[in-house]
Specification:
Number of helices: 10
Number of strands: 12
Largest sheet: 8 strands, mixed
Length: 347
């Protein structure tokens, strides 16, 4: 490994470390009540797919971030960047007060604000890269603990594969899955803010609860008090989320035709309310024979499950030709989590 010479940084190993990290789709996303801390209880089935970002880190006199590739201009390059936050969090956990500045280069292929956890993926990659660069020797479980403080999806980007997430999604249990699944990811123009989608979900649930309350009152012959209107009660109480045992059995069977109809996302109505054009993309995918069609996470990316690689090619061409997306890629899952792919070379 190369070392600097004749400077105050003689201690530094200057060999850069590059980590590849996957995007995710949610095969199930069940959203429970809003908690006092502002988060929602979740039960979700994460599934890593073969669309990767790469993050390279190297020691530096001060931390900096450079982003290239997909949606690079939309990614913050300051302290707010999740990869930079992850590097600081790891340094803090190691009590590494000095010698922790790094140059971070992010090569993006995962679109930004797309429901694919691209920012969380970059944070996970930074944790793995800095752990390697600094010779910290933390286990993946220890890195996941650090990552949970950076973002709810960071622990899964470290783990990869297919896993059940609970809590905010940070509590993970690896899932037993057989076979390879072929997907088409249809990208929308522009992104969606995750907090805005959750807020829309809460509004839709409140409206439904009010409608049920009014209907019940009418059926009972009650008349709403003057001036109260809808929504004056305590609000909706969402059901506690539960894992779909049918989906888990289908994943164990390795049969895409069994998995497809069981894809679900409680945030999908909210995403569609904010981006109605996504309805057309989902309908087109089903018309083209997709085994399953779902908005991934908070959207706006739509994920379509194909029967095989050939069917995925047909779906991607059909969706693009129909003009219902600004681009489509074929991916496979489950993919591995964040992993070192190179140590050495130039940034």
């Amino acid at each position: 490994m190369g070392r600097t010479c004749g400077t105050a940084y003689d201690w530094l190993i200057v060999t850069p470390v590059t980590v590849r990290v996957p995007a995710k789709v949610n095969l199930q996303l069940s959203v429970g009540p809003r908690r006092d801390d502002g988060y929602h209880d979740l039960v979700t089935v994460f599934h890593a797919v073969s669309l990767f970002d790469e993050v390279t880190v190297r020691p530096a006199e001060r931390t900096s971030v450079r982003v290239t590739g997909q949606d690079a201009a939309s990614v913050p390059s300051n302290r707010a960047n999740l990869a930079a936050r992850a590097a600081r969090a790891l340094a803090a956990s190691l009590r590494r007060r000095e010698k922790s500045a790094v140059q971070i280069v992010i090569r993006k292929r995962i679109p930004v604000a797309a429901g694919l956890a691209g920012g969380s993926a970059d944070a996970a990659a930074a944790l793995v890269a800095c752990n390697e660069l600094w010779g910290a020797g933390l286990s993946q479980a220890e890195l996941r603990e650090v990552g949970a403080g950076v973002g709810s999806d960071v622990p899964f980007a470290l783990l990869g594969g297919t896993a059940v997430g609970q809590g905010r999604g940070e509590r993970l249990t690896a899932a037993l899955v057989t076979g390879t699944y072929h997907w088409v990811l249809a990208f929308a123009s522009g992104g969606l803010s995750t907090p805005e989608v959750y807020a829309a979900c809460d509004r839709l649930r409140a409206a439904r609860a009010d409608a049920v309350e009014v209907a019940a009152g009418v059926a009972a012959g009650a008349t709403p008090a003057a001036g109260t209107g809808a929504g004056t009660g305590p609000g909706p109480v969402a059901a506690s989320p539960a894992l779909s045992t049918e989906l888990m059995a289908a994943l164990r069977s390795g049969d895409p035709a069994a998995v497809g109809p069981l894809l679900s996302n409680d945030l999908q109505p909210a995403a569609l309310s904010l981006r109605p054009e996504l309805r057309r993309a989902l309908a087109e995918g089903r018309e083209l024979g997709a085994l399953g069609a779902v908005v991934s996470g908070s959207g706006p990316t739509c994920a379509f499950l194909a029967a095989n690689a050939g069917h995925a090619r047909e779906l991607a061409v059909g969706l693009t030709s129909a003009g219902v997306c600004c681009g489509a890629v074929r991916v496979q899952g489950p993919a591995g989590g964040a992993a070192v792919v190179a140590a050495g070379g130039e940034l």
